[in-house]
Every structure is written in C-alpha cells, then in structure tokens.
Amino acid sequence: MSQFFYIHPDNPQARLVKQACEIINAGEVIVYPTDSGYAIGCQMENKRALEQICRIRDIGKEHNFTLMCRDMSELSVYARVDNTAFRQIKNNTPGPYTFILKATKEVPKRLQNPKRKTIGIRVPDNTIALAILEELGEPLMSTTLILPKQSMAETDPDEIRDKLEKLVGLIIHGGYLGEEPTTVIDMSEGGTEVIRVGSGDVTPFD
Predict the structure, then answer these.
(1) Residue 141 burial (C-beta neighbours within 10 Å; 0-12, 13-18, 19+)
(2) Global pTM value
(3) Strands 37-43, 140-144: parallel, antiparallel or unpaired by DSSP?
(4) Buried b (16+ CB within 10 A) or exposed e, 167-192
(5) What CA–CA distance (Å, rounded) separates 32 from 40?
(6) Are 175 and 156 a contacting pair, CB within 8 Å?
(7) Pairing between strand 183-186 and 79-80?
(8) pLDDT tens for residues 81-139?
(9) Could you tell me what percent of the chain has a pLDDT over 90?
(10) CA-based Rg of the chain, rounded to a whole angstrom?
(11) Are the beta carbons of 19 and 163 closer than 8 angstroms?
C-alpha cells in the first residue's frame, strides 16, 4: 500500500519533501506533479524500480526515458549539448518541454535509447517537483504518467490512488493538473525536430 502525501503546490512542506526523497532513495516508485500532468519516477540507478515503471506504463526498453533535472547545470552533466542547443533550452526552461539529446557516460545504459544512445532531459516548472529535485540532489528518472490504452497524462491524484496505490511507494497530491504531456524536441543530431506537440509552445523551435 502506497503512502499518500498532500503537498502544498506553492509552498511545499519541507518535512514531506524530505520524506518523499527518503522513499525514492529506498528504491520505491513515486507519482508526483509536474507542469504537464502527473509523472512517475524513481532513483536513476535503481533497476528494479525502473522495471516497475515499465510494467505500470506497459512500455519497453526502447522508450525514451527522461531525467528530470533541477537546473541547466545538471542538464549538461547528463547530456551532450552544443552552444546553440544550450541557448534554446535555457530560453525555454523551466517549462513543459522534453529535450532528446545524446547521453553522456553519467547516464546508466538502461535509461538510454538502445540504438541512438539518447536520453530525454527536462527541467519542470512545478514548485513541488523542483523542491524534490533540490532535496534529492540528482535527477529523477521519470516518464509522464500515461496509463496503458490512454493518450493523455493522469491529472487527478485521487483517481491515480485508486488505480496505483498497490503498485507504487508514494503518490503526491499536488493539485488537479492539465492532462497534456510535454512537447518533445529532438536535438540529438544537431538540429531541432518536434517529435510530439504537447503543452509547450513549438514556435521557438520552428
């Protein structure tokens, strides 16, 4: 049975944020709010937790996984970014975008796209998510919480609790959110290619 925290969307309670990070570090999967619906995440190095996320979402290892980062300095540790891409990303983060980039050796191989050696990177514009990332001190392996046979992100934490409370370690109630997932921009080959149009405006990348 998972824990269920009510965390204030504007002033996250430090005690609950710390407890959430302890649950992540213990190897559990968590559901948490972002600026584009709810996401599901786990510790970057935890193979078992990643496998649980894959089961919940019914996705395979070829899925483009994302590292949720607290800022641009973390981003450049885990992804190869040229100056042009860095400027474009910096001008549009934090925000509802996922950027596909070539992974550095700091990214566990199981998180990289097996053929392209890429990783999704994102800096969310959500106070709770950023507080967790700051306390955690490293990126969170993450993917939008889109359940099997659905096309939109989960938005209602009470419904998420009904569906997943026996499958994850923690569900964070951070309000009722929009259901549109991130806009995905592929920058791994030097240019910019919009892979998915979501909640982020694509105009800066046209």
Answers:
(1) buried
(2) 0.94
(3) antiparallel
(4) ebbbbbbbbebebbbbbbbbbbeeeb
(5) 6
(6) no
(7) unpaired
(8) 999 999 999 999 999 999 999 999 999 999 999 889 999 999 999 999 999 999 999 99
(9) 83
(10) 16
(11) no
What residues are paired with 102 via a beta bridge?
Answer: 80, 118
Long-range (24+ apart) CB contacts under 8 A made by 114-119 are 114/61, 114/62, 115/62, 116/188, 118/64, 118/186, 118/188, 119/64, 119/65, 119/66, 119/67, 119/78, 119/79
CA dihedral 111, 115, 117, 119 (to 10 degrees): -50
Residue that the structure tokens 């259901």 belong to:
179
Span 12-37, average pLDDT = 97
pLDDT at 61: 75
Residue 170 in tokens: 């923690």
Class of domain 3-205: alpha beta
Got the DSSP string for 173-187? E---------EEEE-
* Side-chain-facing half-sphere of 105: CA atoms under 13 Å: 0
The residue type of 192 is T
- From CA 142, how far away is CA 124, in angstroms rounded? 11
d(CA 142, CA 111): 10
Using the structure block, give the residue that is written with the tokens 């609950």: 16
